[in-house]
Amino acid sequence: MSFIFWIIIGLIAGAVAHRVLNSRGGFFGSLVVGLLGALVGGELAHIFRLNVTGGLLDQLVVSTLGAILFLYLWKKVFN
Question: What is the reported pLDDT for 55?
Fold first, then answer.
């Protein structure tokens, strides 16, 4: 998968996480939350041995759920 594809998935996942948790985040904030969420979601999928095939929808769902979890925990710890 290309670097540009990762950026797009990260932006979408971060934007959805910001919307779900009623949080504010611009372009860079959404990108960072989305990319970190992808790492968190991917690691959790690996730990729970989920069968993620690596398709667009799989990556988007895992990244979005990871971004929501990351942003939720971030808000709980630092607010």
Answer: 82
Give yes or no for a contact between 60 and 9, defined as CB atoms under 8 angstroms apart: yes
pLDDT score for 4:
86
Task: Give the pLDDT confidence of 3-45 residue by residue, as tens digits.
Answer: 888 888 889 999 999 999 998 888 898 889 999 998 999 899 8
DSSP 52: -
Q: How far apart are CA 15 and CA 33, in angstroms?
A: 8
Q: What is the CA radius of gyration of the chain?
A: 12
